[in-house]
Design goal:
The protein is an alpha+beta fold. It is 35% helix and 37% strand. The chain contains four helices and four strands, in the order ααααββββ. It has a four-stranded antiparallel beta sheet, with helices on one face. Strand 1 and strand 2 form a beta hairpin. Helix 2 runs antiparallel to helix 3. The longest helix is centred in the N-terminal third of the chain and has 18 residues. The radius of gyration is 21 Å and the shape is elongated. The termini are far apart.
Length: 137
Amino acid sequence: MKKFKLLLMFIFIASVTSSCKKEIDYKPEITNFLQRWAVSIRDRNYQDYSNMVKYVKSEAQFNEKYEYYYLQQPVILNLKKFHDEGNVQRFRINVSFYGMDRVKKAKSSDINGILVIEKKDNIYKIDEQIFIDNTYN
């Protein structure tokens, strides 16, 4: 009987420890993605930009929106996965950027905003439609 109890206890402990998976840290991956997104805006590279955005603007809208500034050095302040459906995951991110003025070539202010990033089949897309920022948008 004691051996049976020990066996059950061992099975229980083994199942609990194996079911406690470590949460994946998406911060480095998403930070890298945000840096590439910011570089596409800085360089006004519409092709790269359009590959990273979920709801693509026209090239004229892109040029108008980012005519006077660009984003630099993203820092993720908070990251939360709010949707996970197999191959589609969505993250809500509080992020801070430097806002760089194109004319002055200087930092004009910090931009703190909220973004939604979608990862589908290992491809990230940014939903900048809801980028909340009072300074530039």
